[in-house]
Amino acid sequence: SDLVRKNRKQLVGLLTEDPGFVLPDGAHALSPDGTRAVGHVTSTYHSPTLKRSIAMALIEDGAARMGQTIEIGIDRKTTATAVISSPVFYDKDGARQNV
Known about the structure:
Strand order of the largest sheet: 1-4-3-2-5-6
Radius of gyration: 14 Å
Number of helices: 0
Shape: globular
Helix content: under 10%
Structural class: mainly beta
Oligomer: single chain
């Protein structure tokens, strides 16, 4: 079944190395050797609350890659570095819902 397939794409968060740089929607996440796409950015935003850019992406084996650094292709000559993170960027424990 596709739901248990090895290397399937999973939703993750991305935190850019440069907190002021907002990744372009649809940018490709690259394999470590840069030869193929292992996923893509699905949405991206500059969060005023977090004072940094945040993004969501579908990445091969994403859940197993938390904390890893990945290169995101910006154009044919430029990449940006991001860390794979949880897709929950704010209030991970849900404390604000009990205010």
